[in-house]
């Protein structure tokens, strides 16, 4: 009770008083609390404890910066040294040279004060990352462009810093058909896209109040969907554990982020502000505040890519009339992870190819030819179970939505052809 009273005082001070006075009050109140609990700390310990207190209170980012700057620099230097000495194959290690590190280590984004540590801390903690960086807010793509741009170019097949992402184009939605009419290979098909709500930072910078506000906006907006898309919104906070686990097992619902997202501070205030919307058939889903603000997903059993694609296009066109999304003229639609920029489209199938599973060199050869990403059955960082792979388009930038899905369509058709021939 004493601690909560102190927290309330700090929040009131943050809203009403000047910066220096507020900082003095934080230290004073924290010292009182610690003394009342029979504890005593001095110097840097008090500063670090004060910073933790500010984080708990969701006090303005600028305040926290004043405490964390020495801590941030120290952690950055140590993390960079360990990464450089590691055998990591991440794009972070590849492009975070000493020169780039020295240039970026003291920079902060203008609106939210995000640092280089916020950008790279997941990759510093997880040397087995494939990429290793996230954007804590939209401005990070500009402030830390010397790191983001080469990583984007590498991952997205040569999308240079002078290139411009094309305008949104879904193409002829009737082009795609059923890739596996007989149901021999494809277990399920899914096409999703990510969207960030305009006016909000990304997960690491969101306050608890903002999470709640966004959830309310999303729930209210989706309640207006009709026809095949009509459904209901379920907040994670109001969901029984049994229902939640059933939806996770059916691949409909997300669970709290893995260690890569945890390290990037993408799971703060969990499960506040998180929820799922699904239509009656559970063939159209919306994830609210998982990795991105919104994940719009069309999915169903079997290989009818055409039906899945048309449903997603219809949903996105409807929802974007109601919710403004963050978009950049050069990068396209903005997302938390740079691998999802541009179209943000991920078109995927769960496909059983036991012969190719035994000939991984051939599988990787075809995947490379069609810019496909091959994952384990349950997604990134998992193993293939029974020869079942999650295979999707890899490129999302520098091409249209239609072209991104077409690469997956053509690649899967080729894999099925080869599987039959082996």
Strand and helix map with partners:
Layout: H1 2-16, H2 19-36, H3 43-57, H4 61-85, H5 91-95, H6 98-104, H7 116-125, H8 140-143, H9 145-155, E1 186-195, H10 208-222, E2 231-235, H11 241-249, H12 259-263, E3 275-279, E4 284-288, E5 294-301, H13 305-319, E6 327-328, E7 332-333, E8 346-352, H14 354-357, H15 360-369, E9 372-375, E10 388-393, H16 401-421
Antiparallel strand pairs: 1-5, 1-8, 2-3, 3-4, 4-5, 6-7, 8-10, 9-10
Domain Phosphagen kinase N-terminal: 72-157
Keywords: ATP-binding, Kinase, Nucleotide-binding, Transferase
GO molecular function: arginine kinase activity; ATP binding; creatine kinase activity
Structure, described:
The chain is an alpha+beta fold and 422 residues long. Among the domains are: 2-59, no CATH class; 69-155, Transferase Creatine Kinase, Chain A, domain 1 (Orthogonal Bundle). It has 16 helices and ten strands. The protein has helices at residues 2-16, 19-36, 43-57, 61-85, 91-95, 98-104, 116-125, 140-143, 145-155, 208-222, 241-249, 259-263, 305-319, 354-357, 360-369, 401-421; strands spanning 186-195, 231-235, 275-279, 284-288, 294-301, 327-328, 332-333, 346-352, 372-375, 388-393. The protein has an eight-stranded antiparallel beta sheet. It is globular. The termini are far apart. The model is unreliable at 1-7, 13-23, 40-44 and 53-68 (pLDDT under 50). Residues 72-157 form the Phosphagen kinase N-terminal domain. Its EC number is 2.7.3.3. Residues 185-422 form the Phosphagen kinase C-terminal domain.
